[in-house]
Write a structure and sequence with these properties.
about 120 residues, mainly alpha
Length: about 120
Amino acid sequence: MQANALRAMWVAILAALFATVAALWLVGVQIRPGPKGLVLSWLAAAWLWLSFSRRTTAAWLQRMLDLGNGLLIMSAVGMCGALLSYWFMRVRPFSFADASLYDADLALGFDWKAIY
């Protein structure tokens, strides 16, 4: 992928993530990543810096950078979708209706009902 196209795509994705977090903040849902989330965020930032700052001539290194960028793009788009689903749940007028999903998430240690 060309560097300019990759930069433009990342600017759009980061703007979408920022807008999503801002929309959640406006309805009272705050995101507080734990230590592992912060480590992953810093690793993603370092990977992006590496992929934008290096002009590589080695084919294998370029393939690794492209693979990592693809995985980061997929993760960022999935994160936007997940965060927007929480925003939708927060602003919709209906009451809580999915007890089985809540029980499954509670078994995984995620109490999202406490948000509402």
